[in-house]
Amino acid sequence: MRRRQLRRLFATSAALLISLLFAVPFIWLVASAFRPVTETFQAHVDVWTFLPRRWTLENFTSAFSRGFAANLFNSLWVTGVSALVGTALATLAAFPLAVMRFPGRDWLFVAVVFAFMIPFEVVALPLTTVFTQMGLANTLTALIVPGLVHGLAIFNLRQFFLSIPREQLEAALLDGASWWRILLQIYLPLVRPAVIGTAMILAMAQWNAWLWPSLIITDNSKQTGAVAMGLSDSAYTQDYGLAFAEVFILALIPALLIFFGQRSFTRSLSHTGGK
Burial letters for 108-143: b for 16+ Cβ neighbours within 10 Å, e otherwise? Predict the structure, then answer.
């Protein structure tokens, strides 16, 4: 019994130490965002390296005065719409691929899997030309549309739909239930964690997107937060306090999203290799 307790104590201590090592960069980021930049690059290193001597909001004030609030709103709007609409479309695509039986269903699923394996960089430039010719350049619509249909989201939801016993479907069909009723009242309540996890996957993909916004948006007021942060640098000067504040904001929002939805997100990812 004592040996088991010592082993558990050692494992817990090792886990805490590893967690602390992973947390050190984030702690330093938070401290640098809330202190003057002169303290961040001080010559000597001590405990105050991770704790500001003087707390200040100057870095955040500077960021918002340069229009970062508008860029942050663009990111929130694009991410929210893409997650909601993209999850709905993925659900409508995954349900028939998993539940309904029709000719060519398996081949259609293979095409979906193959589509999301193609790197976006391959089609980014041709897609930019198409959107520009359609007059959608420098619009939030151009940022949203390419992320609405996501092969990984369809694949993820299909795996959950396949895990539901088919007896429930057959019983509902015998009772005369329509396909819409089967989807909304039987399948969706059972795959709620997968739906939440899929929405989080789509949200994270849009929140961290860099290539597509940098290609299709040239107006800085329509740009997303991640790209606008990079464009705030100049060739000869760098406001590190401003950069730390913007990175802190951009990291805090997805961190909160994952924190409150981690259970659904973990269940969603762990089940994608199922039936």
Answer: ebeebeeeeeeeeeeeeeebbeebeeeeebbbbebb
